[in-house]
Amino acid sequence: MDLDVYVTAHRAEWDRLDHLLRRGKHLTGAEADELVALYQRTATHLSLIQSSAPDPMLTARLTQLVARARATVTGTRRASWRDAARFLTAGFPAAVYRSRHWWIPTAVLSTLLAALIGWWIGTHPEVQASIAAPEDLRRMTRPGGEYETYYSSHPAASFAAQVWTNNAQAAAMCLVLGAFLCVPVLWVLFLNMLNLGVGIGLMSSAGRLDTFLGLVLPHGLLELTAVFVAAGTGLRLGWTVIDPGPLSRRTALAQQGRAALGMAIGLALVLFVSGVIEGFVTPSGLPTWARIAIGIAAELAFLAYVYILGGRAARAGETGDVEAPDRSAELPTAA
């Protein structure tokens, strides 16, 4: 494509579209029809220029022009309670369900890694000695030590808020950093499993693994599931960069990125629940079996939510993406 010739041939149409857009609501019926036709043609021009002869300044101008025209043609739509209900009952659970082939293997392999690290630390005194001095290890693992008092060292409400913030940040990092070819996601996941494995190893070496699991499982089941979902989604996003499939890399990344953004919002809600459990249930005076039962109930409720509501929505065609009117227009590009 000769870009100069192409611009000369179509500049008058773009200027006319800009003029009509500036007129706003003062268009006649014929001018409104003309605006729609010019919007469609300009969108096609933009697509062809992007695929055949990309020019940053021209692309920026046409992108802005098409966006303004699209807003005028389709109108703007405000989010409503209906959107929130659709997101919670269909969009989010369907997105989690559709990404299960990524986060379930991530969960299995990560849990095995944490168990392996815990076994290695628990059975090798020299490794324990490299972590901390013997008196420090005893202070952490003894009855009433740091591992136990950690969950009751702050007021429940502020502790729950702090936990929720930290976990939401970790989940968001997994989702956002996935586009960098998966590597940062694997690192964040490894750090989380290392932290869990160290606790397992040190408490098992002190003969108090049951106490440790009784403190971790009530909130940890749901919390770790949310982290695994975020990591799996981040890995899926990273793999899209490598292999976008039948779609163009830009279109595939846009679809996966919008779904990942929705996942971030949904997982923040899930982590809020786990934070409440960690702040109010884990340090409570309830028997260990009762605290673990609450954690298992929360985990089963989330899995049922994903597999029942999410599975049904996914089979109906829900992908977790935003609704069609809110997506960027996608037009065929030149081969």
Structure description:
This protein is mostly helical. The chain is built from 13 helices and no strands. α9 packs across α10 and α9 runs antiparallel to α12.
List the helices and strands and how they pair.
Elements lengths: L2 H21 L5 H24 L3 H19 L6 H18 L1 H23 L2 H7 L2 H8 L4 H4 L6 H22 L5 H23 L3 H34 L6 H33 L6 H28 L20
Helix pairs in contact: 1-2, 1-3, 2-3, 4-12, 4-13, 5-10, 5-11, 9-10, 9-11, 9-12, 10-11, 11-12, 11-13, 12-13
Number of helices: 13
The residue fraction in helices comes out at: over 70%
What's the number of extended β-strand segments?
Answer: 0
Q: Describe the sheet with the most strands.
A: none
The N- to C-terminal Cα distance equals: 13 Å
Q: Mind telling me the C-alpha Rg?
A: 26 Å
* Overall SS class: mainly alpha
Shape: elongated
What labels describe this entry?
13 helices; single chain; disordered C terminus; 335 residues; mainly alpha
Give a short summary of the structure.
The protein is mainly α and 335 residues long.
